Write a sequence for this structure.
């Protein structure tokens, strides 16, 4: 509930422009790399030094260390199934054959220290199970998912794992989906123990894949085959239940209005809310589709890139213009777009096997794609870059708004509109987190040069502030924490943000183009909007919006002067439904003449900065 009063500090900056990210294609005849968005490809030289392995290398699944893009991993068949790893961007490789199982899908923990695969045991039940390695694939430990009471005897090694995903922001957190009972599991200790997130949400669909939004880990998309039950889909806008979405971490799902009952692939774009999906569309056939509003509406981009139920799409996670599409049932059907799907060009990889005689070679079948974002520089906080979110004066007030200024603070712009889950404010947004005095701040808005955050509860004194992104953690900057730091939010021309009791703006005419506004009058009762007015009675809860069931008044009573004349202050309290936002109710002195008069507030011995005005007109 922000009442439209946020100042211009939240202006959206344009997206970053960068060179094409390196991309790896795992193919039937080797691993290939391109640095020009698929225009040209070179084979990655991978020596096979094990007597158990020989070429060609048939790559099935690719992944990388989220903290170090030079560490790349893949699963491949090279006479035997093996795990391949490089720690230097492909200059050298290790290869370790799997023992006792055949792996089929790969993922890496957020901190990069644990690698997971699903695999099928070469003897025994043949169930698909989950394994982890802490020594870069040299040895593997089988992880056990819980059984239901009804399946314990049938699956002695634990519930089979159909799909898994590692959390993109929290180390140790991993998710798994079992088709036995259609149960969605979560572990926060690297797979040691598991809890059930949800169960039986897809009784009339076959789940084909699970996908966690890397920019909002509470958002999940489960793609599905709903073709047998089209009549049971209740989604509007032509939805046929080929895709389900959760915004509460997977606890509940709702059908997405995508006009497909079989979605074969999903990939997240660089912009928040952008998702690409491959599926059949009535009247169009197999079609690549895109949503820019989190699945509410879908736009068909291109058909004919793949056949029914075989399309696969990979969107560049940082470059919103580049995406790759493949037909998993047809060799030589790999396509790339460098204009966000407006046009596609066939991308031709060298035929194989390597060294084959021309005329006796085969087109490549692309099994998986890994896009490696170019290394980003570390975030840097400016020397005086930790300031009040209203006055832009240095310092921090607990539970109030803070602006952090600097460089490389985020890779994209966006706010927490879609990141508040069950009323809890996010401490990570768009891959950015902020620490103040060792406590996480609540991240409201990110852009490369500025962050807006709500400070945690801190004790007065010096506090070290750091910003962490995918590139790493900034150097610490020391800021002073004060119990009070009153500051008014401002409209243009340094006018205090003030509203009447009906929430109409008390601001001079012409301040906002196209809007009729009226300046304050002597005797008007106004609400001033501010931050930094200190503790409240009772103490307001942290990390959630201010409850509306009681008044959280400031522990000390503020005073307000207009042109040095005292204004009557009726009260000051946190605004219900908001966070860190104070409402100060005053009456404009009847003695004021027309003019733009300085207005200041004092509380707890601290005074708001000068230079703020209230326009008064009879």
């Amino acid at each position: 509930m922000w009442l439209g009063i946020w100042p211009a500090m939240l202006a959206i900056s344009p997206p970053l422009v960068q060179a094409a990210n390196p991309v790896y294609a795992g193919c039937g005849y080797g691993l290939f790399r391109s640095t020009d968005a698929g225009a040209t490809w070179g084979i990655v030289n991978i020596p096979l030094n094990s007597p158990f392995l020989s070429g060609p290398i048939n790559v099935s699944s690719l992944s990388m260390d989220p903290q170090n893009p030079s560490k790349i991993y893949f699963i491949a068949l090279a006479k035997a199934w093996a795990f391949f790893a490089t720690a230097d961007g492909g200059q050298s490789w290790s290869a370790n054959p799997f023992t006792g199982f055949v792996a089929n899908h790969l993922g890496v923990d957020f901190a990069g220290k644990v690698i997971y695969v699903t695999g099928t045991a070469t003897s025994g039940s043949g169930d698909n199970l989950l394994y982890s390695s802490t020594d870069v694939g040299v040895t593997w430990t089988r992880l056990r998912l819980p059984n239901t009471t009804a399946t314990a005897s049938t699956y002695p090694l634990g519930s089979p794992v159909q799909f898994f995903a590692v959390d993109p922001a929290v180390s140790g957190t991993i998710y798994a989906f079992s088709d036995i009972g259609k149960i969605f599991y979560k572990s926060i200790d690297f797979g040691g123990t598991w809890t059930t997130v949800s169960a039986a949400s897809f009784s009339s669909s076959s789940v084909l894949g699970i996908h966690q939004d890397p920019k909002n880990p509470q958002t999940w998309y489960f793609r599905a085959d709903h073709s047998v039950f089209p009549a049971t889909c209740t989604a509007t806008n032509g939805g046929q239940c080929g895709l389900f979405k959760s915004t509460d971490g997977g606890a509940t799902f709702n059908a997405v209005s995508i006009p497909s009952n079989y979605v074969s692939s999903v990939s997240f774009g660089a912009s928040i809310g952008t998702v690409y999906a491959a599926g059949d569309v009535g009247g169009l056939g197999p079609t690549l589709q895109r949503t820019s509003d989190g699945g509410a509406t879908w736009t068909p981009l291109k058909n004919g890139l793949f056949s029914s139920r075989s399309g696969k799409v990979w969107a560049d996670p940082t470059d919103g213009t580049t995406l790759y599409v493949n037909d998993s049932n047809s060799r030589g059907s790999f396509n790339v777009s460098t204009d966000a799907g407006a046009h596609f060009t066939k991308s031709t990889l060298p035929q194989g096997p390597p060294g084959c005689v021309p005329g006796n070679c085969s087109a490549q079948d692309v099994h998986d794609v890994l896009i490696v974002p170019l290394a980003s520089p570390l975030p840097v906080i400016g020397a005086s870059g930790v300031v009040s979110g209203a006055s832009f004066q240095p310092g921090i007030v607990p539970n109030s708004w803070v602006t952090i200024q600097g460089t490389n603070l985020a890779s994209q712009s966006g706010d927490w509109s879609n990141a508040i889950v069950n009323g809890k404010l996010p401490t990570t947004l768009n891959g950015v987190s902020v620490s103040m005095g060792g406590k996480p701040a609540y991240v409201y808005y990110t852009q490369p040069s500025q962050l807006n955050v709500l400070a945690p509860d801190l004790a007065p004194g010096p506090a070290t502030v750091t910003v962490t992104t995918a590139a790493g953690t900034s150097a610490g900057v020391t800021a002073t924490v004060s119990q009070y730091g009153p500051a008014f939010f401002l409209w243009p021309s340094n006018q205090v943000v003030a509203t009447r009791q009906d929430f109409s703006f008390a601001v001079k005419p012409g301040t906002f183009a196209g809007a009729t506004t009226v300046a304050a009058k002597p005797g008007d009762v106004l609400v001033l909007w501010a931050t930094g007015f200190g503790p409240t009675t009772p103490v307001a809860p942290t990390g959630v919006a201010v409850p509306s069931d009681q008044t959280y008044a400031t522990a000390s009573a503020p005073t307000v002067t207009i042109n040095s004349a005292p204004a009557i202050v009726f009260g000051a309290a946190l605004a219900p439904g908001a966070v860190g936002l104070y409402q100060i109710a005053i009456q404009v002195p009847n003695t004021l003449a027309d003019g733009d008069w300085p207005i200041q507030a004092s509380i707890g011995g601290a005074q708001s900065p000068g230079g703020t005005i209230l326009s008064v007109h009879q």
About this structure: The longest strand covers residues 68-78.
